[in-house]
Amino acid sequence: MTDRDAIYILGISMTRFGKHPDLDTFDLGAEAATAALADGGVTMADVGVLAAGNLMGQGLGFGQGLQKQIGQTGIPVYNVSNACATGATALRTAIMALKAGECEIGLAVGVEKLAGAGLLAGGNRKEGDGTWSPKGRIGAIVATDGRIGTATMPGTFAQIGMEYLHQHAYGGAPFELFAKISEKNHSHSTLNPLAAYTKAMSLEQIMGDHMVAYPNTRPMCSANCDGAAAAVVVTGERLASMSDAQQRRAVKIAASVLTSDPWTDGCQVLPDVNTLTRSAATQAYEQAGVGPNDLDLVELHDCFATAELVHYDNLQLCEPGGAVDLFESGATWRDGRIPVNVSGGLQSKGHPISATGIANVWEVCHHLRGEAGDRQIEGARTGLAHVIGLGSACGVHILQAA
Amino acid sequence: MGTQIPIVDYLVLDPEPHLRVHECTACGARFFDRRNACASCSGTDFAPADLPAEGTVTAYTIVTFAAPGVEVPFVAAVLDCGGTKVQANLRDVTPDPDHVRLGMPVRLTTYSMGPDANGDEGVGFGFAPLEGALT
Ligand SMILES: [Zn+2]
Question: Given an 8 Å threshold on Cβ–Cβ distance, is A144 in contact with B8?
């Protein structure tokens, strides 16, 4: 029975993640967008709003450029940018337009071309004029990254995981713990034909690979790749007038939340990815009227193996401080009590930044529709999709089968 | 011979090297950089506050890949110095997991970054393990 006051995912699609040397950003976006429209049984002529996300590629007017490839219908276009939460922000933008009553059907697209990109976002050292001249808000005489701690993503998230262990007096060997999380996600991706990597990796392989920022080796870092994902959203009222098949396959968006990081002590030296995620999850559970125990699966932002651990706690999948015990119990494997990242996660499925937020929703939707193929979580009714972007933004969506 | 120039303005060299923050006079939030207003309470009055030179390691990583010009591997850490979180590299420590531990006590140390064209000396800082830190 369609809830007329709710918003639904009507159609959703993602490209294979990986290397697409012959496709540009528009090709990938167009592939995902047209497939999502077809999946929902509608066309661009039905769409009243487009929200488009792309960070590294086309710069100005990516959404308008995409329209030129799939249909210039004169509708409003929102180009969104919100770090790794860009895709979730695009989806939320389309949802807000529907909730505001501006239109009945919206399209959200996220695309990134990242294959071959390095692991590092950190900048080069400044070339000075040969004198030690203080510059900027801290009067630095050189680029500080690497001299005063690290601001690179692998180093930052490594410390975030280690901080969790310190706070909760974990006594084991951190390297093996985090490598086991990566082993799980690489194992999961073997069932996902759209993943960038589909090979299982042994603990020995993961621990023996190149160390990037202890305790994260290369396979424990998100895989840079190309990819796109798109979702068509529809109001419950419009959905009620659609075909039985459309109504049956529609997935209810029980909660859509976006947060930024509030001031916490210490957040200026190590980004706090915990408080804003905890806040987003709390709001999402309230909006959806469900609790963490009602979830059948979770796709969370495992940009590094160390990040997955802290988000178990932030998403309240365990008691505060219980993330290590939760993982070691086997609960987050696909045959466990609360499967996490059955897609392979960012470490193995891949992380084309702006596509990720919608791709996580795509994965959950496919389980709720019973269309996830070999990796189907049987009887899944409720799932949660989470992304985080440093900067900082956190998107949480809770989805329910129709 | 010129003067000593700290790597950042929150490193104060005299009389003993230490870090100095901008403290919000309304709520006590502390900032290493100049702020237009307090991120915690939006207050606009700040006063300088000196941090203790000793702290403990609350998080660390050993960075193996870094931007050009940065020597690797190095140990990056977050420290608790009298209740204020500080970011710094660990110095005088072997960069492997057997020689760094969470909770390890450390102390501020400075080093020369060499002279510039005017003969002024750049001074960097890091934190070194206190004696017996690993035991
Ligand atoms: Zn304040």
Answer: yes
Cis ω for the linkage preceding A215 (within 30 of 0)? yes
> DSSP 3-state assignment of A47?
coil
Question: Closest Cα partner for A362 from A171, A205, A198, A232?
Answer: A232
Q: Is the pLDDT reported for residue A126 higher than 90?
A: no
How far apart CA A303 and CA A369 sit, in angstroms, is 26
3-state secondary structure (DSSP) of residue B103? coil
Q: Would you give the end-to-end CA distance of chain A in angstroms? A: 7
Q: Which of A75, A88, A79 is nearest to A54 (CA)?
A: A79
Radius of gyration in angstroms for the set of CA atoms belonging to chain A, rounded to a whole number: 21
Instruction: Choose the closest CB to B5 out of A141, A148, A149.
Output: A141
Can you tell me which residue has the tokens 């009887």? A379
Q: Cβ of B76 and A160 within 8 Å?
A: no
Contact in structure between A330 and A316 (CB atoms under 8 Å): no
Per-position pLDDT tens, chain B of length 135: 689 999 999 999 999 999 999 999 999 999 999 999 999 999 999 999 999 999 999 999 999 988 888 889 999 999 999 999 999 999 999 999 999 999 999 999 999 999 999 999 999 999 999 987 775
List C-alpha distances in Å: A184 to A139, A192, A337, A396. 45, 13, 14, 22
Our CA-based measurement puts residue A25 at a distance from the nearest CA of chain B, in whole angstroms, of 27
A386/A88 Cα distance (integer angstroms): 8
How, if at all, do strands A382-389 and A297-299 pair?
parallel
Whether A120 shows a pLDDT value over 70: the answer reads: no
Q: Which residues, 6+ apart, have CB-to-CB distance to A20 below 8 Å?
A: A27, A28, A113, A115, A226, A227
At B69, give phi and psi (nearest 5°): 95, -15
Spell out the residues 6+ positions from residue A396 whose beta carbon is closer than 8 angstroms to its own: A255, A256, A257, A277, A280, A281, A283, A284, A315, A384, A385, A386
Note the ipTM here: 0.96
- Give the distance from CA A247 to its chain's centroid: 26
User: For residues A254 and A121, what is the distance between their CA atoms, to the nearest angstrom?
Assistant: 35
Q: Quick one: closest CA in B to A125, which residue?
A: B69
Distance A259 CA to ligand 1 centre (A): 21
List the one residue out of A149, A126, A129, A132 whose CA is nearest residue B123: A132
Task: Write the CA distances from A224 to A69, A117, A221, A351, A373, integer angstroms.
Answer: 25, 6, 9, 6, 25
> Per DSSP, which regions of A236-282 are E strands?
251-260
Q: Among residues A210, A177, A392, A214, which one has the least CA distance to residue B76?
A: A214
CA distance A34 to A36: 5
Question: What is the value of pTM for the model shown?
Answer: 0.96
Q: How wide is the angle at C-alpha A57 spanned by C-alphas A52 and A63, nearest 5°?
A: 25
- Sort out which chain B residues have CB atoms less than 8 A from A175's CB and list them: 97
